[in-house]
Design brief:
With 679 residues, the protein is an all-beta fold. It contains no helices and 55 strands. The strands form 13 sheets. Strands 47, 48, 50, 51, 53, 54 and 55 form a seven-stranded mixed beta sheet that branches. Strands 31-37-36-33-34 form a five-stranded mixed beta sheet, with no helix packed on it. Strands 39-45-44-41-42 form a five-stranded mixed beta sheet, with no helix packed on it. The radius of gyration is 44 Å and the shape is elongated.
Length: 679
């Protein structure tokens, strides 16, 4: 075999399957050259949380890392204050200028300026004195600490903030019988009341002190084992506790049974209220007006109560971790805090499997949550009356005369049109009727604006209102055209209401040619819109009518096909003459003809060369073979000898859709080229 070489073209053809074993073709064609919020916290643990309403900052202590993280109300970290080994309890000064932090690893109390977020002072307490939980009351900063003295155990000390010297005073002896540093609580609303609680005990122990004189005077110790209605009321394993702004109650959350938060009178520590939870009172926080946020480690995770309330008026459930129901977020002990204006509750959570900490912002916690449900028929007939029902659900019930607005959105009123408002019944249910004159998707949105006691809420329901069928046609479907021919496509639109606009799109075959909008315009007076497409590939032409208020959308498609340019040229013959009416190229049997195919180029495309011979007036296939095109669309194939003389022969080139390496054009054959070998 021999290979004919031309510039940029090099390849070898395989053998044809032929009847005459002596005939083989050899080619020379080159290979073509994606309501509440949360934010992650950079902490490894959490000890306490306080909120500065003046600067709108949240402070979280991280004992394991020895730092305090300060964020804004959205959870964005503003600064991390380090060099605070073991920092745990935090207390905000009544003027919001200072955060006091217990730093047991440094045997000191640190003062953090809330404006500059820097440590401005440190109160050393003495060797071995490890403070835990500070609280400001009676003009002093009180703190529980573990004493280094043998047998002294937990005690309470103070820093006199009212004196220029800011004298540190430590407790002595076993004044109150604390076996470890007690947790302290105070509230600016009751500046002379200090409460203390024992941690780690199977039964919680509380003390209440009067600090109006600058010293601690214990007024109650307990709690009492019986309440107003009798019965045992031990609370086990302290998780968190706080004091109400009026100074009359101490609220305690326990980690064990009973699964409830308890309220005790500061006068005698008798039980005054019990707030049941699913899994203990893991964290709690009291707002300046006495509203209580109570946290649990099971759903609902946060329950909000009015002061003295028996049941929550609002609840929050943390989302599943990463959308996986089997993993959830765990509220941290002492991990709740109110914004002073009651606009938010902040919660520190961690994933129960990987200790990823987040600060969650629970919004609108001061008002009862309202849920709106709206039910409408899924389908309706245009210009006929339909009924919409719904309900506003809340606890406590909405005030008498509360109203909800109704807005209808449709194709002719995309920004919405107000309908008559509705007044829910006592049970919160409502109903109204409407007659939609516009078809398509019609949405009814029912909204409650909210009040001082109830949060806003809304819900929508969508009705598919019927529209008449649209007549839309497009010509040229299944038509076939010569390569590079300009072909006109015409869309014909029938009767519509207002919209007379049609879009015409062209989508040429092949992944390298994206679908393209050719024209978007109103049809003419006859309902027609035309566009011209240059047919270099098979092309899907689409006409789109978007629909209007009374007629449905409609899309129609016509697929038109484009051939390729293909021809074959014979060379090396010694003359051309006709046999009958057909022109033949004459070759000496010693010459090897070259067949040069020219075809519209496409990456990876090959031509199919077909060879036939004539026997007793009938043409028979000698074989077919595919040869790649060069980047100029050329392919040269040489037919080697020896050659049989006296036989009429012919050859043609073809592009075969799907077999020539692509499917972007329609199958196209060149004209036959005739030749004969002589002696």
């Amino acid at each position: 075999m021999r290979t004919r070489r031309i510039p940029t073209v090099t390849a070898t053809a395989t053998a044809f399957a032929v009847l005459f074993s002596s005939i083989v073709l050899v080619g020379g064609a080159a290979s073509p050259a994606a309501a509440d919020s949360s934010a992650s916290l950079p902490v490894k643990s959490s000890g306490d949380i306080v909120v500065d309403g003046v600067h709108q900052r949240v402070f979280i202590s991280d004992p394991r890392s020895g730092k305090i993280v300060a964020t804004d109300y959205n959870g964005k970290v503003i600064r991390q204050i380090g060099s605070l080994p073991g920092v745990i309890g935090l207390e905000l000064s009544p003027d919001s200028k200072t955060v006091y932090a217990a730093v047991p690893g440094a045997e000191a109390i640190a003062a953090i300026d809330t404006a500059s977020l820097t440590e401005t002072k440190r109160y050393p307490l003495g060797e071995g004195v490890t403070p835990k939980y500070p609280a400001v009351a009676g003009g002093k900063l009180w703190f529980g600490f573990d004493s280094p003295e043998p047998g002294q155990r937990g005690q309470i000390g103070s820093v006199d903030l009212s004196s220029p010297e800011e004298t540190v005073t430590l407790g002595s002896g076993m004044e109150d019988g604390w076996y470890s540093a007690p947790r302290l609580a105070a509230d600016p609303g009751a500046p002379n009341v200090l409460a203390a609680a024992q941690e780690g005990s199977s039964f919680i122990t509380l003390s209440v002190y009067d600090v109006s004189t600058g010293t601690r005077t214990r007024v109650a110790h307990g709690p009492s084992t019986t309440g107003p209605t009798g019965g045992t009321q031990y609370q086990s394993y302290l998780s968190d506790f706080d004091i109400t702004p009026d100074g009359k109650s101490v609220l305690v959350g326990g980690g064990g049974t009973p699964y409830a938060a308890q309220s005790y009178s500061t006068a005698d520590l008798s039980r005054t209220n019990t707030l049941a939870t699913n899994a203990g009172g893991r964290a709690l926080a009291v707002a300046p007006d006495g509203t209580l946020a109570l946290g649990s480690w099971q759903s609902p995770n946060v329950l909000v109560y009015k002061q003295g309330g028996k049941s929550p008026y609002r609840t929050y459930t943390f989302p599943a971790y990463d959308g996986t129901p089997s993993t959830s977020y765990d509220l941290r002990e002492a991990g709740l805090a109110w914004a002073p204006d009651r606009s938010r509750v902040f919660a520190v959570t961690t994933n129960v499997y990987n200790d990823v900490f987040r600060l969650r912002t629970l919004t609108d916690a001061s008002r009862s949550a309202v849920t709106v449900s709206v039910k409408a028929p899924s389908k309706a007939t245009r210009a006929k009356k339909l009924t919409v029902n719904g309900r506003l659900t809340t606890n406590p019930a909405l005030p008498a005369g509360a109203r909800a607005t109704v807005v209808r959105t449709d194709l002719e009123s995309p920004k919405g049109r107000s309908l008559a408002s509705v007044t829910p019944k006592k049970d919160g249910t409502f109903s109204f009727t409407d007659t939609p004159h516009v078809g398509g998707k019609v949405t009814y949105k029912v909204s409650y604006a909210g009040s001082g006691t109830h949060s806003p809420a809304s819900r929508s329901a969508t009705v598919d209102v019927s529209r008449a069928a649209t007549s839309l046609k497009l010509n040229r479907n299944n038509s076939t055209h010569a390569y590079n021919k300009n072909v006109s496509f015409t869309a014909s639109l029938g009767t519509t209401h207002k919209n007379r606009v049609v879009e015409l799109w062209a989508d040429p075959f092949g992944a390298d040619k994206p679908k393209k909008l050719l024209k978007k315009a109103k049809v003419n007076s006859k309902g027609n819109l035309s566009v011209t497409v240059n047919m270099k590939r098979d092309t899907a032409v689409t006409a789109v009518f978007a629909g209007d208020a009374r007629y449905a959308p409609k899309t129609v498609k016509s697929t038109a096909y484009a051939k390729v340019n293909v021809s074959v040229k014979l060379s090396k013959h010694y003359r051309t003459a006709k046999i009958g009416k057909t022109s033949y190229a004459y070759y000496s049997k010693k010459k090897n003809p070259d067949f040069t195919t020219s075809m519209t180029y496409y990456k990876g495309r090959a031509q199919r060369l077909t060879l036939q011979f004539n026997y007793q007036g009938r043409w028979y296939d000698l074989g077919q073979e595919y040869f790649p095109l060069a980047s100029d669309g050329k392919s040269v194939v040489t037919l080697p000898g020896p050659h049989e003389t006296g036989y009429k022969m012919r050859v043609r080139a073809s592009y075969v859709n799907g077999s020539s390496g692509d499917s972007v054009n329609s199958t196209t054959h060149s004209a036959w080229k005739y030749f004969i070998f002589t002696k």
